[in-house]
Amino acid sequence: MSRQRGGRVDVDALVDDPKTRIIVCCGSGGVGKTTxxxxxxxxxxxxxxxxxxxxxxxxxxxxxxxxLRELGNHPxxxxxxxxxxxxxxxxxxLDMRRTFDDMVLAHAGPDRAQQILENPFYQTISTSFSxxxxxxxxxxxxxxxxxxxxxLIVVDTPPSRSALDFLDAPQRLSTVLDGKLIRMLSSPARAxxxxxxxxxxxxxxxxAKTVSKVIGGQLxxxxxxxxxxxxxxFGGFRERADATYRLLRxxxxxxxxxxxxxxxxxxxxxxxxxxxxxENMPLAGLVANRTHPVYADLSxxxxxxxxxxxxxxxxxxxxxxxxxxxADRVAVTERxxxxxxxxxxxxxxxxxxxVPALASDVHDLDGIREIGRRxxxx
Length: 378
Description:
about 375 residues
């Protein structure tokens, strides 16, 4: 699959390419990743791809926009009505706990799986452990690829505080579960209560404090029981984390970094672009979302001067208001251009597409289609 360097992102070429199997929309929170992912998936389906969009956003607006009452942990088909031959669209929303449960059931026998699922320590880490959501998003992606449910999967990444969390979390969670803490936890059950201090030694208080933070006050015995039950399944857990990481680096994957034309969002986008490059992950380009282009040639200064003349004459107050609004809009546009140009100077190799903001929020399939057309530059 060809990779664009600089210039304009050709969205239609990206989604039409049969070698493109996964598109990952990533970036900081609140920049429109969910809507962008839905628009890409919808456009791909209507151009003939069998597509699934996986969203991590807990809000229900995407389901409503797609004409569904709700989204679940498995793909649900969306009625498009105008897709090309073979084109279908299904949508789903990550259920973090269900995904973790499915992974345990897949790698443990029925008795051991039940022992793990009922353990208080497991019930804590499966819903609130740092990085679990990000890891489970990638676990679900791996499941979808293995099940061959679609020829294109579009992923909306978790709304992390930092864009880098998405890449770090799977390895971080895998490292923690395979690290010193877990080895310490697996020993006490065999050594007995007094043996715990002997094994851990002078670091016991720090160890206990760490465990307390992880399990939220659950007894250490619960943690030890969990580890003993989980030990035989952890190899599969780690292998899947490694396989997913390789999947993200494969030629069939394309990352689209989504950013609003704001300083913080573009700063996060810059960090993400650099991180993707350092990890040799395939970057398709940057989506500068919700821009405000102006197509009139009238400068802000001339617009304000004309408005002042109208106000002085006491005539055409509506025209004066429109002129001032135009001046404000041009000022916003110029500010956005400066910010985007700064990003381009720092990353001239990155292809880009600007997506003008809609007049209102997306609330139906037509709105999603319109975002898709703007992504394609129509």
